[in-house]
Specification:
Blueprint lengths: L1 H10 L5 E5 L3 H8 L2 E6 L4 E5 L4 E4 L5 E5 L3 E3 L6 E3 L8 E4 L10 E5 L2 E7 L5 E8 L6 E5 L2 E5 L3 E6 L4 E7 L13 E6 L2 E6 L2 E9 L2 H4 L5 E10 L3 E8 L2 E7 L1 E3 L6 E3 L3 E7 L4 E8 L14 E5 L4 E6 L2 E7 L2 H10 L3 H10 L9 H15 L2 H12 L3 H13 L3 H4 L12 H14 L1 H10 L7 H14 L4 H13 L3 H11 L4 H8 L9 H7 L1 H10 L6 H7 L4 H14 L8 H11 L4 H7 L5 H10 L3 H10 L3 H12 L2 H11 L2 H11 L3 H10 L6 H7 L9 H41 L28 E5 L4 E3 L28 E6 L1
Antiparallel strand pairs: 1-28, 2-3, 3-4, 4-5, 6-7, 8-9, 9-10, 10-11, 12-13, 13-14, 14-15, 16-17, 17-18, 18-19, 20-21, 21-24, 22-23, 24-25, 26-27, 27-28, 29-30, 29-31
Length: 816
């Protein structure tokens, strides 16, 4: 079971590469011949065959040129090299920068490795780099380093220093080197990857330190990673920090128990120091794989585009890294629509074969098929966006499967707006089966999305079957509101006693429609109704409200009470009526009303209070009408409350009342105690004490007398303190007045006599004159003032008419 789950998980892994056959001219060539080798350029391919032909191909596999002899030939120049060799040539490699004049070099491999280079005389000369260790079947040139493999191992030659810098021996010598050839590839200028048999080695070329050189080469090779693979290696290629490995596979048949050639594998592995981790593995179905050997497969690659060419005698397969379109294809194939949609959104600039909308629609269809209707409807918002036509198409699809309710919460309501029929169709669906859902949509959807009259008629038809359904009634009221039929809406709201009735009245100014519905409003919510009526007195008069509430005095009282609280004078014509209303429904507020009202008929109020035996209210009315003695008598006789009687006497501040209170209390010890405790500051306590009969027991008499004495002492102290303050203030003011009066007064030509109105100073300064100036700053000629009386020598300003010596008295007499 665990193995089955593991295989299922493996099948869910996305492949890293995609494959296609190289066709066109290649198919034609391989029908008559067999491929033996291949090299790859960014712009073209070169394919060698067993018949000794070399074909130049474009990247689509079309033949562009054909060669029948071994030569170095310049495709874009006239230079070429011909040579006859004494043994078969197994391999050839040219300098990576052969096009440069300083790099005209190439090597050939057979029984020996020859280096050809052009001399300064434009002649070619050859040098044997290596021989004597069997045929050389693989050569790779990178930068200044040439790597080759013969029967004994792998060598690296430095073309600059003309030195061989390493020898990597072959691990498994039991394998025939001609049947299981070595695979070489350079990852970069200093990293060589060697695959031979089932062994892989990654070698790094490093510079040797000067102190270590002696007679050794300037460079050396270090094997940084070495591991074994499961199958025989036919080719290697780098892919970033990973390796692409083409493997030759042999398996044993379960039926015949004989070994046979299986399909070759192309693996991507992550090299580690002593092992490797498999990233992906694909078995390739190439033509004629059953007859192929390990030496028949080759792996070539194009560095710029990450293209890998798997070459076999009868087939050439191209492997490419999967792009985002391929990734989306795989996700769609695995029905991972949400991941595919997300990938398309992230890489929408890079995808070429897919459209986000198409993926989204496929995702919606998949969810619907799976029965996830709510998720499918929710995804419509994101996928369909503002495409009204697609929205309408999807709505009809949901209708066909009976899932209009699922898509209703997500329908667009503004941009775009669908046809009214779409919204009406959904509303009818809810109306048939879900009144609450129908009401929710009416509240949430703007009224202009659908034909309001059609929906109103549908609701009314349903109400014929269930006339008391509150949900339908409320929804009908909302529809009437959208249709500006506020009267019908208001009537329904009042019937339902719905809280929105007051908002509806205010919003649409329906005060003219509620004049005959005031009682209904008050019954529903008297507080809100009264506030609304009082706030809109200009639209519904106080008189109209009182008249409408005539048969409901309890509601009438609520209205008039709040009116009185707002303004004591607005409802003055109803104050007489309010006395009875307060007495009947709200006695606690009767006394405050009597105190605050100035329009209340006192006789009527007294009559009502006496009839109902309202003592406190009667006492207040008697005192307000001037009958304080009767009020005090009522307090003493009805309430028996000495504290209240004393408080009443204090408020009236009438000596006769105090006398009556003392006379009433003289034979009641508890009353005497109360008087002794409170009378000290208003009436002389001696008047009370002298009248107390000898031998009468008075509760707390000692404490009361002590309090009287303390109060008396406090009064004395207060008087003395006030006297000191008064004397100090008088002295201060007197000094201030004296300083003021001692100041001089300016008299000049502009001043006039207040009596004769002529200039106060004579025009001729040589003439004698006499002027009187008062402290009030009025000035007179002395002869213009009346003579002082015989009783008082002081003179006073005629204007100020001062009776006592003060600011108007004379302060200065000027003579010359």
């Amino acid at each position: 079971m665990a193995e089955a789950e593991e295989q299922e998980e493996e099948s869910e892994e996305e492949p890293k590469l995609k494959y296609e056959r190289l066709s066109n001219g290649v198919t034609e060539i391989l029908q008559k011949d067999a491929a033996s080798c291949m090299t790859v350029h960014d712009k073209f391919l070169a394919l060698g065959t067993h018949y000794g032909k070399v074909y130049l191909l474009d990247v689509q596999g079309n033949i562009t040129q054909k060669f029948d002899v071994v030569q170095v030939f310049g495709l874009y120049s006239g230079e070429e090299f011909h040579e006859t060799f004494d043994c078969p040539i197994k391999i050839i490699a040219v300098h990576p920068h052969f096009v440069r004049s300083s790099c005209k070099q190439f090597v050939t491999g057979g029984k020996k490795l020859l280096l050809f280079e052009r001399s300064w005389m434009n002649r070619w000369k050859s040098v044997v780099l290596h021989e004597g260790e069997g045929n050389i079947r693989s050569v790779k040139w990178r930068g200044h380093l040439i790597a080759w493999a013969n029967n004994m191992g792998v060598k690296i030659f430095d073309i600059i220093s003309k030195q061989r810098i390493t020898n990597v021996p072959r691990d498994d010598i039991s394998l025939r080197p001609d049947m299981y050839p070595c695979s070489l590839c350079w990852k970069d200028n200093v990293t060589l990857i060697i695959g031979w048999g089932t062994s892989v080695k990654i070698c790094s070329v490093k510079e040797r330190h000067a102190s270590e050189m002696r007679d050794l080469p300037s460079r050396y090779v270090e094997i940084v990673s070495q591991f074994e693979t499961e199958f025989y290696i036919s080719g290697l290629a780098p892919l970033c920090d990973q390796l692409v490995v083409l493997s030759y596979v042999k398996e044993i048949s379960e039926k015949t128990e004989k070994e046979y050639c299986a399909r070759p594998r192309l693996d991507i592995i992550q090299p580690l120091s002593e092992t490797c981790e498999e990233i992906s593995s694909d078995a390739l179905t190439v033509r004629g794989f059953q007859e192929n050997e390990c030496r028949d497969y080759h792996l070539e690659y194009s560095e710029g585009e990450s293209l890998f060419y798997i070459v076999s005698p009868r087939d050439v397969v191209v492997a490419k890294e999967r792009d985002q379109d391929d990734h989306i294809d795989w996700l769609l194939e695995k029905k991972k629509y949400e991941e595919a949609l997300m990938a398309a959104e992230i890489s929408q600039k890079n995808i070429k074969r897919h459209k986000i909308l198409d993926i989204g629609l496929a995702y919606i269809n998949h969810l619907v098929e799976r029965g996830d209707y709510d998720i499918a409807a929710r995804k419509c918002q994101k996928i369909l966006g503002k495409n009204a036509a697609l929205w309408e198409y999807e709505v009809y699809k949901f209708k066909e499967i009976g899932q209009l309710k699922a898509i209703s919460p997500y329908l667009p309501r503004g941009d775009p707006v669908l046809k009214p029929l779409i919204y009406e169709m959904i509303l009818h669906e809810f109306l048939e089966s879900d009144y609450e859902g129908f009401a929710t949509l009416i509240r949430e959807w703007p009224g202009d999305l659908y034909n309001n009259s059609v929906i109103v008629q549908a609701v009314r038809d349903h109400l014929k079957k269930d006339s008391q359904n509150k949900t339908l009634l409320k929804t009908l009221a909302e529809l009437y509101t959208y249709d500006k039929n506020y009267g019908n809406a208001l009537e329904i709201y009042l019937t339902l006693r719905h809280k929105d009735v007051f908002q509806l009245i205010h919003k649409h100014n329906l005060f003219s429609s509620i004049k005959d519905k005031i009682v209904l409003l008050m019954d529903f919510d008297s507080e809100k109704a009264v506030d609304m009526l009082l706030d809109n007195e200009d639209k519904i008069s106080i008189k109209k409200v009182v008249e409408e509430l005539e048969d409901r005095p309890e509601l009438q009282h609520v209205y008039l009470h709040k009116l009185f609280k707002r303004d004591h004078h607005k409802g003055q014509r109803y104050h007489e009526k309010q006395i009875s209303l307060y007495a009947e429904y709200d006695r606690p507020n009767l006394l405050p009303f009597l105190r605050d009202s100035t329009h209340c008929p006192l006789e009527k109020a007294l009559e009502i209070c006496q009839q109902r035996n309202f003592v406190e209210e009667t006492v207040y009315l008697l005192s307000r009408m001037g009958n304080s003695r009767s009020a005090l008598k009522m307090i003493m006789e009805e309430l028996h409350d000495v504290d209240k009687a004393i408080e009443f006497a204090k408020e009236q501040d009438d000596g006769e009342l105090w006398e009556d209170l003392i006379l009433y209390s003289i034979d009641k010890p508890p009353f005497i105690t109360g008087l002794l405790n409170n009378i000290g500051t208003h009436v002389d306590p001696i008047l009370l004490i002298h009248r107390i009969k000898e031998g009468m027991e008075i509760p707390n008499l000692r404490d009361s007398l002590v309090k009287i004495l303390q109060d008396y002492n406090l009064q004395i102290l207060l008087r003395e303190g006030c006297k000191k303050i008064l004397v100090a203030d008088s002295l201060s003011l007197l000094k201030k007045m004296h300083r003021t009066q001692m100041k001089g007064v300016l008299v000049d030509e502009e001043n006039i006599c207040e009596s004769c109105l002529s200039p106060i100073l004579p025009s001729d300064a040589a003439k004698p004159f006499s002027v009187v100036v008062f402290h009030c700053r009025h000035m007179f000629h002395k002869e213009c003032l009346p003579m002082p009386s015989m009783n008082s020598a002081a003179q006073f300003c005629n204007i100020c008419s001062a009776k006592n010596r003060g600011p108007g008295s004379a302060i200065l007499e000027m003579k010359k």
